[in-house]
Amino acid sequence: MDAQGNVAYLAQLRQRIQAEGPPRVAYAMAREFHEEVVDVTLTRFSHKRGTKTPSPPGEPPATVGGHLRRAIRLYAASRTGAYTAESRVRPLIVYARIQETGGTVTAHGKALRWMSGGSAHFAKSVTLPKRPYMGPTHRAVIANGRMRRAAVAEMRLVVTGG
Predict the structure, then answer these.
(1) What are phi and psi of 64, to 5 degrees?
(2) Residues 3-41: pLDDT tens digits?
(3) Under a CB-based contact definition with an 8 Å cutoff, are residues 117 and 50 in contact?
(4) Do strands 125-128 and 103-106 pair parallel, antiparallel, or not at all (unpaired)?
(5) In 3D, which of 102, 92, 118, 117 has the Cα closest to residue 61?
(6) How far, in Å, CA of 16 to CA of 126, rounded?
(7) Which of 2, 31, 38, 127 is packed most tightly, with the most Cβ within 10 A?
(8) Residue 86, φ and ψ in degrees, nearest 5
């Protein structure tokens, strides 16, 4: 390949990187985070329905029926600039946020009702401890290099035309 061919090749490569790179890399990183939350973090503890949650305070919530795990969604990447994009991972279930941050749930009707130990319990409000799962997982996949490896691998595919 001559100099003019190299210039044309590099211009084409730059265009491909700019066009495909940001959304593909953002999605690859989000996919890694999603897999870690769903397949590792939210499977650490479990218990049968109707029994007391066994996960220690400050640890991720224990799996009962898997509703929270199944509610974690991975969204396609969207461009945020010429060389940037974002992809989101978030839970789509009403109690997801209070599991992460802790807090008090107050009845808007007569009372809250739940089953535990084979009997029904009622209360006007219940305070739940923090059982963070999204924040600690996000920090962990950055710290252990998993997100970076996903980004590098995906960019390598973009560059090589894969």
Answers:
(1) -110, -70
(2) 888 899 999 999 999 999 999 999 999 999 999 999 999
(3) yes
(4) antiparallel
(5) 102
(6) 53
(7) 38
(8) -140, 150
Please report, in angstroms and rounded to a whole number, the separation of the first and last CA atoms in the chain: 22
pTM above 0.90, yes or no: no
Q: Are 55 and 64 in contact (CB under 8 A)?
A: no
Q: What is the DSSP letter of 55?
A: S
Contacts of 141 (CB under 8 A, 6+ apart): 32, 33, 36, 147
What pLDDT band is residue 119 in, cutting at 50, 70 and 90? confident
**How would you classify the pairing of strands 84-86 and 89-91?**
unpaired
Give dist(CA 28, CA 147) in Å, integer.
8
Residue 128's DSSP bridge partners are 103
Torsion of Cα atoms, 140 then 102 then 86 then 26, to 10°: 20
Region 83-97: what's the mean pLDDT? Answer: 95
Task: Find out whether 28 and 151 touch, Cβ atoms under 8 Å.
Answer: yes
DSSP state of 129: P
Length reported for the chain = 162
pLDDT given at position 154: 98
